[in-house]
Amino acid sequence: MCHYGSVADHESSRPSSEHGASERTVLEVKPAHQAVIVIGLTVVGIALGVVAPFLMQWADGQDWLPFEGPRRLLEKLSSTVGSWILIAIGAVAGVLAGLGIAGELSKISISADEVIIIKGSKKKRFSRAQVTRAMYDDRHLVLRDDRDADLIREDLDVAKDDVLTAFRRHGWPTE
């Protein structure tokens, strides 16, 4: 996954003591930066919608180009409804692509007892008893067990220094 700025949002909270949970640090790409991704891809989609009629006109003379069916459909829509439909399609596609990318950005939650890595709808949880070392290797967070085997090797979208600082803050051994 690409890095869209490694800006971390630090949230420490103390959950209620009735559940016995300890202080937790959550690191994730800031919502403002996620919004920039969505807005940026929406603008790109709109721009593609604006230039699409010119591209389709050029593509008519190019027999080697694939996707003739979708191209003909877009031409028909454009001539029937108007070129604004291509701009609307581009905007919707840009918003959907931006939301998809923003939704897949990683988030890490660290406490003294566990670490949880979330990417999209996938969660990976490791207890403190499983992990003997947390480190970075070639831009990947690596958690190792007592046999020095990798439990996980994950490319995160938050700053390496912030992640390592959070691990140390909660008493995890780091390199």
TrEMBL record:
Composition bias of kind Basic and acidic residues appears in 8-24
**InterPro entries, from UniProt?**
PH_YqeB (IPR057798)
Q: Which residues cross the membrane?
A: 35-56, 81-102
Q: Which Pfam families match?
A: bPH_10
Q: Where is the stretch described as Disordered?
A: 1-24
What keywords would UniProt list here?
Membrane, Transmembrane, Transmembrane helix
Which part of the chain is the YqeB PH domain? 25-174
Q: What is this protein called?
A: YqeB PH domain-containing protein
